Amino acid sequence: MNISLWEAIKIGGVTMWVILGCSVVSLAVTLERLVALWSYLDRARGLAETVNRCLFRGAIAEARAACERSHSPLADVFLVGFERLGRGSTEALVGAVDRERHRVTLDLKSRLWILGTVGAASPFIGLFGTVVGIMGASHSISQQQAGAFSVVYRGISEALIATAAGILVAVVAVVLYNYFMQRLARIAVELKLLVDEFLEVLKEKGQDGARQATG
Q: Would you say 39 and 188 are in contact if contact means Cβ atoms under 8 Å apart?
């Protein structure tokens, strides 16, 4: 039987509206994360290359200015390093930069918990619709002497459509959640590599600057 989405929503009852709301929220989170992660690594690599090139030339001020102009979140990590350079021990500098890197990595995971929640809850919402539909069908049978299929059709339809919709929304949400988590794991590794390289160059140039100042 072919029915439209609107007809499925009407047959599915209140449960279908809840599931539809979950699907809309999942779509909004997916689009927001796709925009946020678009060219994320390309921008980070480009900034790291520019900053390291400036540092190798000893142009620390130019490297910092490049970070201040950049829209990459990695710029915030590098700026912490420039702020701490020469103001304490090397260990303190590395610790501050590493904390900022962790903060940036955590920001990447913002709102992904919504996809996980939708993926976990949608089947149970559909199951709730199934129970409600079966209860309605049972009530219809008890109210009428004839147990014709037409009497219980709506309740059974509500049960089946709600269950199918809940499973579908859950599968899509879980797939998207796993995709983003895998992508974020790769981004986190690459950010660590870029930050480690930056710290090596920054510490080297900072020591060179200190030797020149004392010499």
A: no
Element (H, E) at 74: helix 74-84
pTM: 0.79
Are 101 and 77 in contact by the 8 Å Cβ rule? The answer is: yes
Digit-coded pLDDT (tens) for 128-156: 877 777 776 666 666 665 555 565 666 67
Is residue 41 within 8 Å of 189, Cβ to Cβ?
no
Q: In this structure, what token pair is assigned to residue 94?
A: 């590395």
Length of the chain: 215
Question: By three-state DSSP, how is residue 13 classified?
Answer: coil
Q: Tokens 């599968």 map to which residue?
A: 171
Enter the DSSP assignment of 73: T
Distance between CA atoms of residues 56 and 63, nearest Å: 10
